[in-house]
Design goal:
328 residues, alpha+beta, 2 domains, two-stranded antiparallel sheet
Length: 328
């Protein structure tokens, strides 16, 4: 594979992204942590808890992705790193809520021993105390790990010790993994350093039969040779159960130097009669000359338009791009 033929993020990070990352973390982490802990405690059904864990990780990762988009972060590694730091803080705040809740409801040796039972407001207040006392968080976690809180089946035995620690570790990895997957989208998308804005996905979708020698066609595209590709595109789709779908991304402003980018997805029906999509090409650079040759290929396969107004604007933009190329 010719890596030079594909989009590569510049690696730039703006101060605005750092500010948005901190703002999203400060607002979302306490809310998500509070919701996560109380849902986990009052819905003791393991299958539901698993989806709650995935959901919290997905929500946090999505917020980190929005921060990257608005902050114009073009460094996936830094965005993932910040997301993992946020996830660790997310988990710490969860423990701050979890410990007073569990010790108040499950163990008389704690708050009951002082002749009191914490109200809901007092539990939240206690969470703030734990937040500024990491040593107290560690002590509370070790105590809970020693005796356990929940059990499996009707034996009455609680899960504790190493097994409970493994459960907590898996829980963290699920949240961190889901958040990392969700936050990777925008930092890896094509960005125009010339216009200082993200590339936009074009509404027109092109479809064509899957060639017998896809690897050969891919090598030709990487080298800028689109003649064979256009010839196949003109033939359209003969097998609706096995074809290629082409998606293009254009610069935010007309440019003579910046390329278009193309994705190629393989759409097919498997042996179990299920629809499948596999990405074969991701953000392959296509010169303006080659892009316009592809856009004017006839017949254009299937198109999808959101509104007639957008269709008119899109067609005008593509026509202007073609006229600019013809004038050159």
């Amino acid at each position: 594979m010719n890596k030079e033929a594909y989009y590569k993020p510049s690696g730039k990070i703006s101060g605005l992204y750092i500010l948005l990352f901190l703002l999203c973390s400060v607002i979302s982490i306490p809310i998500l942590s509070f919701a996560y802990i109380y849902l986990n405690y009052y819905i003791p059904i393991i299958y539901i808890l698993f989806f709650i864990t995935i959901g919290c990780g997905a929500i946090f990762g999505y917020l980190m992705s929005i921060a990257a988009k608005l902050g114009k972060a073009r460094n996936p590694a830094v965005v993932i790193g910040c997301t993992l730091i946020g996830t660790a803080l997310f988990k710490y705040v969860q423990w701050c809520f979890y410990i007073p809740l569990v010790l108040n409801k499950s163990y008389e040796v704690y708050y009951y021993s002082f002749g009191q039972e914490l109200s809901f407001l007092e539990q939240v207040t206690e969470a703030f105390y734990f937040f500024i006392e990491p040593a107290a968080v560690l002590d509370g976690a070790l105590f809970i790990n020693e005796y356990g809180v929940w059990g499996i089946g009707n034996s009455g035995d609680t899960v504790a010790g190493i097994f409970l620690a493994i459960v907590w570790l898996v829980e963290f990895l699920v949240i961190a993994g889901m958040a990392s997957l969700m936050c990777r989208d925008w930092p890896g998308r094509p960005y125009s350093e010339e216009s200082n804005g993200w590339y936009t996905q074009m509404e027109t979708i092109y479809e064509m039969d899957s060639p017998a020698n896809f690897d050969g066609m891919k090598i030709s595209l990487e080298s800028g040779n689109v003649e064979e590709f256009i010839a196949l595109l003109r033939e359209g789709v003969s097998n609706p159960l096995n074809f290629l779908r082409l998606t293009f991304f254009k610069p935010p402003a007309p440019s003579h130097t910046e390329p278009y980018y193309m994705n190629i997805d393989h759409i097919f029906v498997d042996d179990k009669n299920k629809d499948n999509t596999a990405t074969l090409v991701n953000y392959l650079a296509v010169s303006t000359h080659n892009a316009n040759a592809i856009f004017t290929a006839e017949p254009i396969a299937q198109t999808y338009e959101e509104t007639p107004v957008y269709e008119e604007i899109e067609d005008t933009n593509e026509s202007d791009a073609q006229n600019e190329f013809d004038e050159e």
